[in-house]
Amino acid sequence: MGQKIVSKEEMQLIHLLKTPRQYYLYSANRNTVINISEELYRFLDGQTDEGLSRNAMREVESLRHEQFLSDNRIRDFRHPALNVLKESLEHRVSQICLQVTQACNLTCAYCPYANYTEDKIQRNHANRYMSFETAKKALDFYLEHSDDRQNSAISFYGGEPLLAFDLIRQVVEYVNERFVGKDILFSMTTNGTMLSDEIIEFFAEHKFALMFSIDGPAKIHDINRKRIDGTGSFSVAFESLKKTIARYEKIGEINRISVNTVMNPQNEIDDVLTLYEDPVFQKGINGQIDPADMLYLENGLEGSETFDQKLSYLYFLGRLDYLQLVREIHMPKSFPDRVLSQEKQYEDLKNGQSSLPDVGSPGGPCIPGVRKLFVTVDGDFFPCEKVNELAEDLKIGNIETGFDLEKAASILNVSAITPEQCRDCWAQMQCGICARECEKDGKISKEIKLKNCREKRIIAESLIYDYILRRECQTVYKGGAQL
Amino acid sequence: MNSLLYPYYNELEAFVQTLPFYNRDLQITELVTPYAWKSPVNNIFEASLDFDESLKNVDGVIIADSPRNKFLEKDLIKKISNALQQRKNVFCYTKLQPEDKSAFINMAKENSVSFEYVVSDGKNEAPDRIFELQDCIVIGIAGLLQEIDSFSSLLQLVYRYRQLGYRVTAVSDNPNAALCGFVPFPYSLLDGNFAFGNAIHHLNSFYNQLQFLYQPDIIITQIPGGLMKYSNNCLEDFGVKAFMLSQAISIDYFILNSPVDYLNAHAFQKMSDVFAHRFNAPINAVGIVNKRVNTAVSKEMSKIQFDTLRTESVEQYVRMLKKEEQSELLFFNTMDSNAFENLVQNSIRKLI
Ligand code: SF4
Ligand code: SF4
């Protein structure tokens, strides 16, 4: 019924949303939401077969007039940053991440490199190290390709990077000499099991930003982060964290230390979060709490029944806390901070757009190689450390041959492989699909990409709901929420 | 005195070109740039990367200021000590820690050379408050966005007017301008110690005093900060300083420096109408600087990021702007020193 008054093409580009007090229409053409009447909502949602009242008809006309209802389409699926890709890769690479080793002294439950899949899904831990020659070539390449930037960010990745501490020391020395005149930032993620006093001193001297991987209190951490002999690693990692904090406090750089907690869905969330009750977290260090990434796990990790529900509830509380709707919520800062990280997307939704561009592409990934240049022990380039290092399609070059522009472009322009589907998708302006998720057996694949669509639309919908909640806090619930 | 300039960077090109007109005592014969500052585009001047080698050929070292000098702190100290120990005179235009400064004064004495520290402390006395509009001509030069250079244009203009016999007083917010005898912009009058209205009065008095002191035909002043907010995502400057200055003095000729690809000629014309209301000064000329906003990266970083372009791209854009009809504005390439002859002639026709 709705289709007669509103065409199929118009319907494809809208998404309906509802809160306890309001009805909304999200328009991909305008990339923003607008209030609609209950009558129109029910009609568009197919809940009623009755025709529309005169008022609702006027509403439809006005939505059409303002292009909230539109059969407009992106004609040419091309990522806008393709025009500046070459120049950006030549002059503005922002960060280099060196895989100093592929070895690790732990075997974590959810680590893609420790889930030995015989190099089928992702590489495995291996006793391989980057040579100083390779590191030097990579750093020179980075310096040459970042001359339009004032800052240089150099991070170290593994395995456990501290297994290659001597190389890290050499790299820092080299950078401090070669990169004089740049705002230099060193950073590293560590499992915290190999920090001697001397190493802590070295990090403090060079003001390293350090992220410790601590997955919860001892009883949780030790299930997930085990040594090869099966013993847990909590006590030594947490002790090192405390020592490092004490050292960084002396130089007033405590905000350079953070903790990363990966939640294994098999664990109880409440137990995990007790970690954050420790007094060290009162000192202002940052924490990041995320569920384990299972993209490269052969058998995934079967979660407990309540895991997803509790996680969603925590995210919800995080929103309330961020919006200061409810006082005295005790929870790690990571949850309200998650909302903060979406500020940019809210801003885009608030501003909207006059209509879909002629040339464009769904939301999309980073600019590969520009946001980050990940260099493996062998000197191969990837857009970040999260991608499958065995995937030829994701390899964007090498220290010897430089960037492979064609591959970088196809990663950036990943939407171009499914224009038919994306063109008619209501979530196209919010979709953050990344080539990493579209890869199988080393190739970027259409079928694999489309398997992500359901999840991408759920993410888009939840972002729009968050935005609506913020809006309603300033309008509907201005005087305070009565939940 | 043959001198070495360190650290040399792209934006100092016009400075090196024009310094002989401003300062006959110092001849820049060596340019040295830090390795990590190698420019993404070709410079007119080839700079060396070897400070120690270049030092052998000179008697003096000029330590220039740059917004990036904060990343050179240790390096500058090493280079200045080195120069003094090699018995070279040092002229320092960048801020140092007080203890380093006194150490260098002593070191210079021991080596019987001079160490001149030419950094304005930025503390301007509030001048008497008599609000009077100046009666000499005022030319204002502004960058549309905060990091768009207008110092090079100032350098190119001042000496050309002087060559034509005009008495020119130049006001600059660039610390290196002291080497050319320009007056430093009185930032301290805007730093929040004065109420908004008072600050405008003080600024007005400052420019009136310049007029009284130097009796110039023309004052050319850089307008500090950018002129507008870029986007909700990248705030940059809001044009507040420019607004205050525009209320304190009356600008007779307004040159706007803009990045490449920013607007078409028609839009610049419209912007001129807006500026006529906002700053009481419509735009007369638009200088195109060899920068382009990298929108994708700026959005990702929530801060304006520029790509540096070759002069051909600037020329191409300027040609396109000139082709558009119905624009009264004069468009020029700020990297083309000949274009400034034109600009001077155009301003003289309009003003004098
Ligand atoms: S996961 Fe994808 S979008 Fe994210 S940094 Fe890596 S390549 Fe870019
Ligand atoms: S959800 Fe799927 S169809 Fe929609 S824009 Fe993203 S990739 Fe395209």
Instruction: Please list the strands of the largest sheet of chain A in the order they lie side by side.
Output: 12-11-9-8-7-5-14-15-16-17
User: Biggest protein-protein interface?
Assistant: A-B, 29 and 27 residues
What is the overall number of helices of chain A? 18
The total strand number of chain B stands at 14
CATH fold-level assignment of the largest domain in chain B:
Rossmann fold
Give the tally of structural domains of chain B: 2
The CATH class of the largest domain in chain B is identified as: Alpha Beta
Give your account of this protein's structure.
Chain A has 18 helices and 19 strands. Chain A is α/β, with parallel strands linked by helices. Among the domains of chain A are: 2-72, no CATH class; 81-314, Aldolase class I (TIM Barrel), CATH 3.20.20. In chain A, strands 12-11-9-8-7-5-14-15-16-17 form a ten-stranded mixed β-sheet. Chain A has a three-stranded antiparallel β-sheet with strand order 1-2-3. In chain A, a hairpin with a 4-residue loop joins β1 (14-18) and β2 (23-27). The model of chain A has no long low-confidence stretch (mean pLDDT 88). Chain B is 37% helix and 18% strand. Chain B has two domains: 2-117, NAD(P)-binding Rossmann-like Domain (Rossmann fold, 3-Layer(aba) Sandwich), CATH 3.40.50.720; 137-351, P-loop containing nucleotide triphosphate hydrolases (Rossmann fold, 3-Layer(aba) Sandwich). Chain B has helices spanning 13-22, 51-55, 73-85, 98-110, 151-163, 196-214, 240-248, 265-278, 295-301, 311-323, 339-351, and strands at 2-6, 27-31, 60-63, 89-92, 115-117, 137-143, 168-172, 183-184, 218-223, 253-259, 285-289, 291-293, 306-308, 330-333. In chain B, the strands form three sheets. Chain B has a seven-stranded parallel β-sheet, sandwiched between helices. In chain B, strands 2-1-3-4-5 form a five-stranded parallel β-sheet, sandwiched between helices. The mean pLDDT of chain B is 88. In chain B, α1 (13-22) links the parallel β1 (2-6) and β2 (27-31). At the A-B interface, α5 and α14 of A face α9 and β13 of B. The complex binds iron/sulfur cluster (2 copies). The site of one iron/sulfur cluster (SF4) has 12 residues of chain A, from α16 and α18.
